[in-house]
Amino acid sequence: MNRLCTVVLLVACSIAANSQFSLELNAGTERVATHLNFFKYIDKSNRWSLYSGNQAAVKYDTGKPGFFSANILAYNFRNGIGIGAILIAGKSGLHPSAGLQYQKTIRSFYFYFLSTYELNKFATQENYFILVYKHKLSNRVKFVFHNENYICFRKWGYNQSLQRIKSGLEIRQTQVGFISETSQTGKSYQTTLVNLGCFIKQSF
User: Fold this and answer.
1) What CATH number was assigned to the domain covering residues 2-203?
2) For residue 99, which of 13, 1, 161, 189 has the smallest C-alpha distance?
3) Cα 6–Cα 8–Cα 13 angle in degrees, nearest 5
4) Model-level pTM?
């Protein structure tokens, strides 16, 4: 579950330059979740940044709540490349890792890639890719599209993957729209999640 939830932190990373706090609520066919994210540059040159993403979710079939927190301390170079130290906290405990990231903004497009490595009993390597597109419809309204892809390798073999798509409208600092989440796990790529629903997000 921790590996699946890790992707949530990337949504806030993609809009970090525009807001310090964001609160999101989404409800789908399989679960309901809320996300509280915080981002801040901690030096005058905007090289060092601190991010904290927190999620609480409840699956309808079990009714059991789950909590997850991801925290990143990153240093960003001028060419878009950065390095980071990541600490994930969840039901299974604390998971520290280190990673290399790349981000680039081209007009209305934002690209983000993060590759991390966790040195524990079993080697775990994770990769994230995000594409964000915003198109201005009027002075107050924008069309917003998020595409997230995540894949995890454990013991040097495929472990889990996730695809997450959000599409909707941004009115000032509020986003509303539709969300689609699918997940696969194991060598047979067995589908473990198909969650379709709606979301609302407020940035501060």
Assistant:
1) 2.40.160.40
2) 13
3) 105
4) 0.79
